[in-house]
Amino acid sequence: MILIILKENIMNLKRIFGALLTLLGIASLIYAAQLFLSEHGETREIKELIIYTVLGLIFFIPGINLVRATKDEA
């Protein structure tokens, strides 16, 4: 009985963590898109654009995979 409750809590934590990673990735990608649209071509801005895009993808892709891979056992 306790193992079933513990397993359900772990699954819920995985889903919450996956959703959090996904939201962070989306926010980072939106900020990168905003930087891209207001680009003036300075070296600093290009570096920021690359960093925020890569970080957004690093957060977004595992977040989506974690939400998808976690099965509901309700």
Rounded mean pLDDT is 85
The main β sheet shows up as:
none
| Overall helicity | over 70%
Query: How many domains would you count in the coordinates?
Result: 1
Q: Number of DSSP strands?
A: 0
Give the helix/strand class. Answer: mainly alpha
Give me the strand/helix succession: HH
Low-confidence stretches: none
Number of helices: 2
Name the beta content range.
under 5%
Rg result:
17 Å
Query: How far is the N terminus from the C terminus?
Result: 14 Å
Structure commentary:
The chain has one domain (2-69). It contains two helices and no strands. The chain has helices at 2-37, 43-69. Helix 1 (2-37) packs antiparallel against helix 2 (43-69). The longest helix has 36 residues, at 2-37. It is rod-shaped, with a radius of gyration of 17 Å. The mean pLDDT is 85.
Key traits:
2 helices; mainly alpha; 74 residues; single chain; rod-shaped
Write the layout of secondary structure elements.
Elements (H helix, E strand, L loop, with lengths): L1 H36 L5 H27 L5
Short description:
The protein has helices at residues 2-37, 43-69. It has 74 residues and is mainly α.
